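Appendix C reproduces, verbatim, an entry submitted by the partner laboratory led by Prof. M.T., so that reviewers can inspect both the input and the predicted structure.
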Amino acid sequence: MRMMSRASRILGDDPETVREAKRPHLAEEEEGAALHSTSPRSPDELAGRTSHPEMVFALFSPSSRQITYSYFSVDSVYDVIESVTGESSDPASPPLYEPYIPDELADRATNLGIRAAFRHAKAKYKAEQSRQASLFTMAHHRYKAPSCLFSDPCLLPIREPAKDAVLLAANSVIILSSSLESQPLNMCSGLWIQRDDSRKTAVVLTSAHLIRAKDPSKMDPWLEEWTGKYHREAKVIVHLLDNTTVLGQLLYLQEHYEFSLYEVEVDKPVELPTFIDSVRSGQDVFRLGRDENLDLTITHGRVEYMVPDWYERCHYMYFSRDTSHSMFQDDGGLIIDLEGRVVGLVNNHINETFVPSSILHKCFDFWRRFKCIPRLHLGMTFTSIRLLDPICIERMRRKHSIEFGLIVEKVSKGSYAEKLGINKGDVIEGFNGKYISTTIELENMLIDICWDHFDQGNELNEEKHVSVKIFDATKLSRKTKNLTVIVSDHGEDIVKGTYPITGK
């Protein structure tokens, strides 16, 4: 019999060989750092940030291609320690048979010797039964609440590809815990987005809720989440999939998009996910996280575009699910499509919101080059006309020739937008000569404008002028004005306009 050498690795010792075998269709995108970029910069700039041979970034898949994943043999990823031979020195476990008293001895069952032997054999049988039941391969019999991909008959048409997608993305999902002065603060899921094999470090992306300050005076702790404060000094522990833990070092906190980046030391390469920028309303997706036992949490849902509540950010997308199923606390987890690609980061499991990958993509590009993720503070919040009832859209089109744009919902007191005369109900049809139809498009444009701002040698907390095309809903007229905005990487607070009544 042919023997296999000790400690041989089927696909070689290079971890990237295994990764490429898992994604053979992405080989051309993986050249350099394998980061497909949409930010406004030259190819030379991209190569300058990704040419380090030991630095590996998460992939962004081009949205115009259908990608099919194939699995490699499980033999290709573990080290073969023992030689394969025809015989083994370790004897096989005997089969488990249940003892009984034969019928011909039934009349002698009162015999004390037979009864004692039977009780002894029965006890050994039950003990072995319990041992077998405790094997990790038998754990599925003990599940009290199996995942939706095991028990939900409605998912039968997509069950098999969905299982493959979940298992493909699962190795990228971890869990983090935070504490403040030895008091537990929060737990969030997270995902790997970058690794440096030479330094033996990796970067994990998670929700900013991991270190968000709790306000005991609020009945609903999520109600004011977008104006919350954060404990940057909190101790963060990253729970790895091999049941070890490492200390996380805060690299960056983005308050507006509500995510944070932590660097950790790792002994072996971590598995990075593949992102995709495009996602459509009604698309089947799965939300992945981990619980305190490191078990996966899996929730099926569909992507939904909705008008945000007054306390929510305008760039959110929504995860629509069957509310009769369990809700998992999986902030910081992944939203994946049926091919295992990440379409968003879970923001709030209660309000079912997530940040789409198109925004995350630009944020990662910005952070890798400038070590910050700024945004233009406009002093306004919006509702996309596209999200309205078709009756309302048709009425605006018929009466006012408005088909797309952003309806102003709130204007911050004292902001440049207020000074410019923009009011609630006005329609912003374009920025810098480009038409805007959704708040996601707006966020991507704002990041691109910030990129140009930094490319020109400018910095944070400076003013910038943008051209805004406005439909005045009161005067029923269009105008184009220059709006002064602030370049900031803090969360934007919209201040409600109030005034005191001091007399008659």
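The chain has three domains: 103-137, 165-368, 374-488. Additional entries are available on request from the coordinating office.
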